[in-house]
Each structure stands twice: as C-alpha cells, then as structure tokens.
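It is worth pausing here to work through a concrete case rather than discussing structure prediction in the abstract. The textbook approach is simple: state the sequence, then state the predicted structure, then interpret. We follow exactly that order.
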Amino acid sequence: MITEMALERVEFTCGRCWHDWSIDYDVQQYSDEDGAWEYFSRDGIPVPSPYTPAGASPCPVCGQHWVGRLRARRVIPAAPGPAGTPREKVTDAPRHRPERRGAPLLRSIAHTQPEQFEAGAERRRQASAAAAD
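Step two, the predicted structure:
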C-alpha cells in the first residue's frame, strides 16, 4: 500500500570540479508484508536512491559520481483525500483530456539549476591547499 508520494529535488556538488546541479525525483513510500520501502523514479524510469552510492549521479562536467542531498520536497496528496477535497468526475474516460497523451515530458532536470558562484573557485583553492598539506 502506498503511504506517501512526493517530488524531491536532490542537489549534488562534485568534489572534483565543484560543479553544482540538481535533479527532481518522484518518490513513493509504501509498505507491504515485508516492511516499509521507498521507490525512486526519474522521468518515469525506476532508479536507485540518489542518497546512496548505487544511485549517485554523475557530474555533468567531469563525470565523477556523487551522492545527493535533499534540497526541497513536495508531498503529492493521494486520492481520495479528506472529505470535501475538490474532485471532478470523469464521464468519458477514453476521450478525457486527450492533450495529456501528447504533452511533452517534464524532465527531471528541466528546472533552473543552481548558480555557480565564485565560492566554487574558493572551494577549489581550499581543496588544493589541503591536498598539498
């Protein structure tokens, strides 16, 4: 049984080139007779958790893989919702909102990406100095 659905924006920072980027993941939490589980997907494709090494995202600049951290989250209410929740009856299911079938896919990286500040250059300098010690 699905216990929660959410959209999670996960941020990554490359420890090699200090590039910052973020990706949106659809997350379903559910429980069954074997326990509680999380199911992650990106653009409708199942993926490992971005919070684990197995699901670490490659840096779009240098290709190194980095584990993400949660930046923002939006819970998606599950139907039927509390009493009085607005809803619309679907009267002609085969022809209901046909434009949905041809709508472009909203990609998981379609949002504005984090800006690269001069702080990245400062982090590189500090990392280089630390490595030299």
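Step three, interpretation. The first helix runs from residue 99 to 102. The CA atoms of residues 13 and 44 lie 24 Å apart.
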